[in-house]
């Protein structure tokens, strides 16, 4: 099944007992004061949706942002949210495409087999005059057994090996950060890029608040010299928008896609890391 589902599909299946809907909206980066996306969820959400808090569900034993938790921790969290084994999971965000793909990737990495993104998110749902609820949603706890797919995630040692092998690495950061001409948003971290990486700014995969069409995405990846038949690893600043590339690659049929979880936040801090900058 396509990783994207339409609002009409969800409208028809919203009350199915095997369907669970998750709002996985992170605050947009660089906006002060920060937007309270949980408050926005409480104000309006798709009926029955629960809030998938990417920040709270990440590993807090590390200083790196948004890292995957342990399978045991993720299992407990999903069970508490009412997300069970074998359920059809629909993830959305309140507007645009930014963080919902990270939730989609996390769930898939931990073994969920039937996970999808709502095309157009909450904005498309509202534009379709579909019902909206407000307030907290409590679901009954159900079993969820997370089993990490090691092939889905790369660490620093593996990314260095991929660089040495001249493997396909796609970086979702802006062209300015990738080239080294613009600073990183995290203090003390140099901009630039990994040797051999290809810049694929995640915003170039989007149009009108959603992913571009399959044809447009295929043409875009072709112009970047990406071979979707070969393994591809995605990266970004903190592992969030790398998942936007992973989603787009899955939409166009790529089968061997992994994500560097530490991403630039980890790589640029390692003294042995090689950083290139454009002249």
UniProtKB/TrEMBL annotation:
It catalyses: 2-oxo-3-sulfanylpropanoate + [thioredoxin]-dithiol = [thioredoxin]-disulfide + hydrogen sulfide + pyruvate + H(+). GO terms for cellular component: cytoplasm. PROSITE patterns: RHODANESE_1 (PS00380), RHODANESE_2 (PS00683), RHODANESE_3 (PS50206). Residues 45-134, 163-276 form the Rhodanese domain. SMART domains: RHOD. Its main location: cytoplasm. Keywords: Cytoplasm, Pyruvate, Repeat, Transferase. GO terms for molecular function: 3-mercaptopyruvate sulfurtransferase activity; thiosulfate-cyanide sulfurtransferase activity. It is found in: Cytoplasm. InterPro entries: Rhodanese-like_dom, Rhodanese-like_dom_sf, Thiosulphate_STrfase_CS, TST/MPST-like. The keyword Thylakoid does not apply. The keyword S-adenosyl-L-methionine does not apply. PANTHER family: SULFURTRANSFERASE, THIOSULFATE SULFERTANSFERASE. NCBIfam families: PRK11493.1. This is Sulfurtransferase. It comes from Alloacidobacterium dinghuense.
């Amino acid at each position: 099944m396509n990783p994207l589902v339409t609002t009409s599909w969800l409208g028809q299946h919203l009350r199915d007992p095997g369907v669970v809907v998750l709002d996985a909206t992170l605050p947009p980066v660089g906006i002060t004061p920060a937007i309270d996306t949980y408050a926005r969820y409480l104000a309006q959400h798709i009926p029955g949706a629960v809030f998938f808090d990417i920040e709270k569900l990440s590993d807090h034993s590390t200083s790196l942002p948004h890292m995957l938790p342990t399978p045991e921790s993720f299992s407990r969290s999903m069970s508490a949210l009412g997300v069970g084994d074998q359920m059809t999971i629909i993830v959305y965000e309140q507007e645009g495409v930014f963080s919902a793909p990270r939730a989609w990737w996390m769930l898939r990495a931990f073994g969920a087999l039937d996970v999808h993104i709502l095309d157009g998110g909450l904005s498309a749902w509202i534009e379709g005059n579909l019902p909206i609820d407000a307030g907290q949603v409590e679901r009954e706890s159900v079993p969820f057994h997370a089993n990490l797919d090691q092939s889905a995630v790369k660490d620093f040692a593996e990314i260095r090996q991929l660089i040495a092998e001249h493997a396909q690495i796609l970086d979702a950061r802006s062209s300015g950060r990738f080239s080294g001409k613009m600073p990183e948003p995290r203090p003390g971290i140099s901009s630039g890029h990994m040797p051999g990486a290809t810049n694929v700014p995640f915003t170039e995969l989007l149009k009108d608040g959603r992913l571009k069409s399959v044809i447009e995405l295929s043409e875009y990846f072709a112009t970047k010299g990406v071979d979707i038949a070969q393994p591809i690893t995605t990266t970004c600043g903190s592992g969030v928008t790398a998942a936007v590339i992973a989603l787009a690659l899955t939409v166009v049929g790529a089968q061997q896609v992994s994500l560097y979880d530490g991403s630039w936040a980890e790589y640029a801090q390692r003294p042995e890391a090689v950083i290139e900058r454009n002249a």
